Amino acid sequence: MLHHTKNKGDIAATKAIADLTLKGYLILTPLVCEHLPFDFVAYKDDKFYKIQAKYAGDNRVVNKTIWVDKNGTHQKKYKVNDFDFYAVYLPDIDKVVYPSINFKGCYITTQIPNSATPFYWWEDFTDFTEAASKRTYKEFGVDLTTRKVNPDSRIHTRKVERPSKEELEKLVWEKPTAQIGRDFGVSDKAVEKWCKAYGLEKPPRGYWVKKAYGKVEGQLTTHNETFSRIEF
């Protein structure tokens, strides 16, 4: 179905507001927003986030705003302080992703490309994201010789349900982040994002090496307790 440009913007904002509301954010919409560089504000855990909603039929995170009046068509590039995060609606998968304004102008991929060129993958932006690494076809089992994808290797494309806070808090002290990621079929970066979203502390650097040699005297049981001394 074809949509008018304004309708696309309304669809993107509506999808984003619904998604963020389900994620526990309070949404604040300005009474007059036509000349503001953002569409609405999301609030959670004593933090405010200025959001610019965009409909990305071509998966591109646009870097400018365009409007039309009696004097013709105008455009203005976004500045770093105009808003905090995009809310980009991807109609081909009916999902909203949240790259920071620093990602303006980039493309977020929803289909595994048959190319060796690194790309940004949509599942890395399902929460407010300030930094993300580009992926490669190798992570998804793509064979560039045959241009086919090994379905057994597409571990990063399936939807993974995040464990509960209590479960994850227990797991991070039982095994390394990389192992938790393999168990859930996600990257270690995804596990780190889960911990950050829950406000969980992880074992300090060198913890697993010292534990392997039996040098750990104790471990954290909850994120509010103090981790006991580790010595060789």
TrEMBL record:
This is PD(D/E)XK endonuclease domain-containing protein. InterPro entries: PD(D/E)XK_Endonuc, tRNA_endonuc-like_dom_sf. Signal peptide: none annotated. One of its GO terms (molecular function) is nucleic acid binding. It comes from Nostoc edaphicum CCNP1411. Residues 3-104 form the PD(D/E)XK endonuclease domain. It comes from the Bacteria.
